Amino acid sequence: MITGPSDAEEPMTATIDTPSDEGAAAAGRARVAELLATPPETIDGVIAHQERLQEILESEYGPGDGVASFNRLYLRITRGIRDQLDDDLFADRDFLVRLDVEFARRYFRALHAEATGGTPPRSWGVLLERRRHERISPVEYAVVGVNAHVNFDLAPAVVRTCTVLGRSAPGPAERADYRAVNDVFSLHMVRLLDDFDQTAPGEISLTEQLLGCVADVPVVLARDVAWRQALELWELRSRPMEYENEVAALDRRTALLGRGLLTLGALT
Are 253 and 1 in contact (CB under 8 A)? Predict the structure, then answer.
């Protein structure tokens, strides 16, 4: 288990919003809340939500917004998965489609909670609270979003998918498709620096240097860890209190890692 600063840690200093910024943020939250009030049912529905969300985020907050930076990457990944559905890449298409939907729904729920004045998971709060920090690059924002989504959302999404489909437990077929999805994720992650570097050439932070040294970003994309976590959560599903306690602990660990990633970016 990762140990470190308490959850009461003071947030990193960020840019101060002007009254006009506050008005734009309120308008943005209202539009996000309206969009995400209805969860998607299909991969095409997920993509439609992501596309519309990107339009809202860029128009209300600007293209450099932290959530917009992550959503831009996530949209590419989801399109990549959809485009390969008919290529016999996946052993169990039904599982893959449902996993994609359940995975995205957790992300959308976090954004909807923040937009409606609720409390998003701590792992997503790291990104949402610091989305406009002047010394954090789009690359770093995207990586922190990936951290929250993979390290916190993925394991519960696997459990939910198997439950909805009536599976006895996550098994070899599900693991095979899980790994195939990871291949799509990795393909887009290795392009991350090149894509975002065009927006700020010559400015490479410590976080970006670390990313450039590890093509598949194993520290952030702890996919095998997430799979083991899914198996552990599956065994706890009949004990709701223990299940929720484990998810809460997972959230705290993921938030701690996210804070560390953003601190690296702000200090360089």
Answer: yes
- Write out pLDDT tens, residues 164-221: 999 988 988 888 888 777 777 777 776 766 665 555 545 545 455 545 444 445 444 5
Question: Residue 177: CB partners within 8 Å, gap ≥ 6?
Answer: 90, 91, 92, 95, 96, 99
Distances from the Cα of 12 to the Cα of 110, 126, 254, angstroms: 21, 10, 17
Sign of CA dihedral 237, 92, 228, 102: negative
Dist CA 103 CA 196 (whole Å): 24
Are 74 and 133 spatial neighbours (Cβ–Cβ below 8 Å)? no
Between CA 111 and CA 67 the distance in angstroms is 9
Alpha carbons 127 and 113: distance in angstroms, whole number: 14
Alpha-carbon distance of 7 to 256, in angstroms, equals 8
Paired tokens of 2? 């990762």
Model pTM score: 0.84
b/e per residue 21-31 (b: at least 16 CB within 10 A): eeebeeebbeb
63's enclosing H/E stretch is none
| Rounded Cα distance, 105 and 40, in Å | 7
